[in-house]
Amino acid sequence: MANVTVIGAQWGDEGKGKIVDWLSERADVVARFQGGHNAGHTLVVGEKVYKLSLLPSGIVRGTLSVIGNGVVLDPWHFRDEVAKLKGQGVDINPANLQIAETCPLILPFHRDLDGLREDASGAGKIGTTRRGIGPAYEDKVGRRAIRVCDLAHLDDLDLQIDRLTAHHEALRAGFNEKPIDRAQLMADLTEIAAFILPFVKPVWLTLNKAKAAGQRILFEGAQGTLLDIDHGTYPFVTSSNTVAGTAASGTGLGPNAAGFVLGIVKAYTTRVGSGPFPSEQENDIGQRLGERGHEFGTVTGRKRRCGWFDAVLVRQSVAVSGVTGIALTKLDVLDGFEELQICVGYKIGDQTFDYLPAHAQDQAKAEPIYESIDGWSDTTAGARSWADLPAQAIKYIRRIEELIGCPVTLVSTSPERDDTILVRDPFAD
Ligand code: IMP
Fold first, then answer.
1. How many CB atoms lie within 10 A of CB 285?
2. Looking at the predicted structure, is the pLDDT value of residue 1 above 60?
3. How far apart are the CA of 238 and the centre of ligand 1, in A?
4. What number does CATH give the domain 4-103+199-260?
């Protein structure tokens, strides 16, 4: 049976929530494989709106949901998000939600450090979500993290806590921050362990058994490929690998498990936080895209930067994530524009590029080369078949397919789940 991996193919906020929700109804298991509660996935189910940051979207429909080892877990946030969803009537229990034993924990001093660094960075700040994501991944790679499985062995954690706190004390001293209250940390961990431990399982085993039984696994990516720590616009990226390949390493399944890779792509471009954005429109056009597209961050409420569709970046994402097909979202936001621009290359100094070079200075200097295409005056909102779309909108989609070298698998035309034009069922492959 086919699996599906959903990833963002731009800078996040492409509208993954709706697509994942639609697919999760037909999946047997939904797995998160990277990131943490920096993500913001909005699901509209009937009259209800669910906002998820850490939990896999499948949980809303009661599908077995797993948090893979590639995720960094803030246990207190986990408890709050579970409580919030339960308050909305969602059934959550250790039978339908599992956490990998090897997830590193995000602790209060990770959040402190994230904020302290951002505040001290002036113009160089990354514009993180300040949720401690980067510092927690640093400790994982530095081999000093406290992991979820350690919550069952708190009496045996002295040496590990020594190493971890020694590292952070030095950093905090540099910021004139007070030392970590170790007794308080142990008390907090002891208290939260009782809540977390019932959910903790060898997730790699659950998933391998599901795979062996021919069940459908949906891998739910967070953020987007251009925020990938290796392939994104470094250093203005998140601290995890967001590409589709991480579905395997971030859950404990082999690389052949990813199945159909569905790249979610907005019909224009947005970005939250700092960093290069060649096709950004800091003018009436950007303003209009932001207003029509309700472009405010789910997690931080920040206004998103908006610009024209950048075919160069999406083509690059399609390549590095091995995207099989794309889901094009928010096409209706472009309704009524007389003319649309698509970025098809960059000029940097006197050189032209058909990809984004790696160096931050080059990225900052990249001037977009645009191709114009006529817009359409009719609405595409709520379209459910090609016949419902204006001819010019179809032309825009076809041109995008050509430029990015990847077919459109579905088009989403409103937040409503049924307002979707399905070209090919990713699970049917
Ligand atoms: P961090 O992941 O909190 O460290 O933030 C690093 C960068 O990734 C910042 O530019 C954030 O705005 C961006 N970012 C993190 N999570 C998301 C997301 O879910 N959507 C869009 N941008 C995100």
1. 17
2. no
3. 6
4. 3.40.440.10
Could you tell me what percentage of the chain is helix, strand and coil, using 3-state DSSP and rounding each to the nearest 5?
A: 40, 20, 40
**Which residue, 410, 406, 404, is CA-closest to 425?**
410
Residue nearest to atom 21 of ligand 1 (CA): 12
Q: What fold does the segment set 108-196 form as a domain? A: Adenylosuccinate Synthetase, subunit A; domain 2 (1.10.300)
Q: Which ligand 1 atom lies nearest to the CA of residue 128? A: 5
Residue 77 designated active-site:
no
Cβ of 65 less than 6 Å from ligand 1 = no
Residues forming CATH 1.10.300.10 domain(s) in the chain: 108-196
Q: Is the CB of 32 under 6 A from ligand 1?
A: no
| Residue extent(s) of CATH 3.90.170.10 domains in the chain | 265-428
Q: Give the chain's length.
A: 429
Give me ligand 1 centre to Cα 203, in Å: 26
> From the CB of 272, is ligand 1 less than 6 Å away?
yes
Structurally, what CATH architecture does the domain formed by 265-428 represent?
Alpha-Beta Complex (3.90)
Find the helix or strand (DSSP H, E) in which 403 lies. Answer: helix 391-404
Alpha-carbon distance of 413 to 116, in angstroms, equals: 41
- Using the mean position of ligand 1's atoms as its centre, give its distance from the Cα of residue 265 in Å: 17
- The dihedrals phi and psi of 281, each to the nearest 5 degrees, come to -120, 95
Q: Whose CA is nearest to atom 8 of ligand 1?
A: 238
Q: The tokens of 410 are what?
A: 């579905």
To test the ligand 1 pocket, which listed residue (16, 126, 129) has its Cβ within 8 A of the most ligand atoms? Answer: 129
Q: Which of 98, 272, 130 is nearest to 202 (CA)?
A: 98
CA–CA separation, 382 and 371 (whole Å) = 27
Kindly report, as residue ranges, where domains of CATH 3.40.440.10 are found in the chain: 4-103+199-260
Distance of CA 259 to the CA centre of its chain: 19
- Residue-wise pLDDT for 12-46, tens only, equals 999 999 899 989 989 999 999 999 999 988 888 88
Distance from the CA of 105 to the center of ligand 1, in angstroms?
Answer: 18
Q: What single-letter amino acid sits at 242?
A: T
pLDDT of residue 301: 79
Q: Give the nearest ligand 1 atom to 222 CA.
A: 19
Q: How many CB atoms lie within 10 A of CB 405?
A: 12
The crossing angle, in degrees rounded to 10, of helices 158-174 and 108-120 is: 20
Range in 40-44, 100-104, 334-338 the model is least confident about: 40-44
